[in-house]
Amino acid sequence: MMKHPITLYILVLAILAPCVATAQTANNFKVTDRFFGVHFDFHANPDTRGIGKTLKAEDVDFMLDKVHPDYIQVDTKGHPGISSYPTKVGVAAPDILLDPLKLFREETAKRGIGLFSHFSGILDAQAVKDHPDWARINGGGDKDKGATSIFGNYAADYFIPQINELSSKYHINGVWVDGECWALQPDYSDAAIAAYTRATGKTDIPHRRKDDGYLDYVQFTRRAFHQYLTHYINAVHKFNPNLIVTSNWSFSSFMPGKVDAPVDYLSGDFTSDAVADVDFESRVLAPQGKPWDLMCWGFMSDKNGKGFYWKSARHLDQKAALVLSQGGGYQIYTPQHRDASLPMETVPMLTEVSKFCHDRKIYTYNSTPVPQVALLLSAFGHYNESPGVFENAQGGNNNVKGTLELLLDSKYSVQVLQEHHLKNNLAQYPLLVITEWRQLQPEFIAEIEQYVRDGGKVLAIGDNHLFGKYLQGALPVKSNAGLSISKQNYGKGAIACITDTFAMSGISLRYLNTRDENLRAAVNQVVQELFPQPKVEVNSDSKVHITLNKKDNNLMLHLVNVGDHFDTNADNTLKFNLPAITTPISVTLATGKRPKAVILQPDGKKLPFTYAAGKIKFAVPGLDVYSIVQVIN
């Protein structure tokens, strides 16, 4: 019997409502909505059974409603190449009892929360097992058991179609592609060698690092990955222009250089809990001209490396502070259980960190740095020194990291900038710091020379081989930290060079590994001579890292407590300790005019200040983890 038309209409709406909500969520979510998120994955393998067995809608709802993430990322395909959802394109796990992705999409769509796929790219063990001709070939001629070739048919025949399947079937908002640049190695497949010969005309192929031309082959591999990345992102964007895509660690410290592929945002997951690593990675991504975030692993191993335990909210708050202070977004990695269910014990921790971040978003997200100290991360120098394809612990990156910490510990506001950031922009920075690069491009050296001639100041740390001709006649001065310091005026500016007189010891790495206070003080004395009037001066004996940004025409001074350390608990786990700073922090800030108010955020507490000669002076009454001083004009 035919139902009443109104009844039928209501029934049809009820059936279609989840689909409509899902489509609207997919269309309305923007890349700039990615501020705070939670990343879940579990890398299903061929033996994974019972997927969805204990995954419950009420658990997902509880997590979403308590934590209030702007988005979540969930497992779809990990490095083993086994999909954790029913797929007609890829290879699904053998025992899927409930479709996790369908459930996550339904529950996130109800709340307007973004849903992103964690999807392994070049690393796909199942794909190369089923299609040996898709495998990368190593220098010894063997097929890689885990990695595909970027020169073969994997992307066109498998990778791109599966992303399009995810996009059309589940209306996901985006894809966080993992296992790419950081996993890339030189490929000696027939297709790769043919591409190299076409590009260079060379037929003598270097297979080992000691072979002539090996670095040229590595550089060819790098260029090929840029092309590969551009190709597949253009393909999935053509299928769905609204899909938000990134490749993990692209255009980061692993892969420095100008963003020349159509990634929608930049992202990376850091496993280190060292402040130095988070300081560095966030400052490398921040100036790249794309929305960006960093992912902190929410767990750590015990001292024996036999198990893991969850980090405290305070621990994760500090890492969030280091990221947010640079204008980025933040996400936390909490692995799913093997059946795709969620670790519900993490909800209180995630809720606290989410509130910490969202309370500060209005003062941090997409803010603009005030030029002060520019620290050079040379893409040219890195690739010239690094034997790997894309590796961030090679070349001069660790030297930059050590110098960055030295400058931050001296309470300077520092940006880590590459050649393409500084080209035609050097004049806006009062001080340029260059640290222990073996080689820079001659045209960039010439630009630096003009910068100094016009009044700029350069501090070269490590040796003077790059700037020695500008220091002729300068008499070196020995410091009590074992440093030899030369300084010479040049044009309207000046160049100083600091050389480490200790054998086999670099200044930057020495500081990174020891936090030698005498070393820091000796270098800081030279910095003060070159840069005597920073826009902000912070006076405190406590360990505070500062950043000076602008947002909505207001100055924002970010203060992060980095005085952390670890203790050992009775169960052999490490306890994160971050004592609050209880003594006042004195600040002098050049504003040019008297501001309307100085407010400590996110507390909303007005700070009394004095104003004279274009500068304000005030005191911050202590610091817990992270506060922002908002100067309202």
TrEMBL record:
The keyword Transmembrane does not apply. Residues 1-23 form the signal peptide. Keywords: Signal. The keyword Signal applies. This is Beta-galactosidase trimerisation domain-containing protein. It comes from Mucilaginibacter ximonensis.
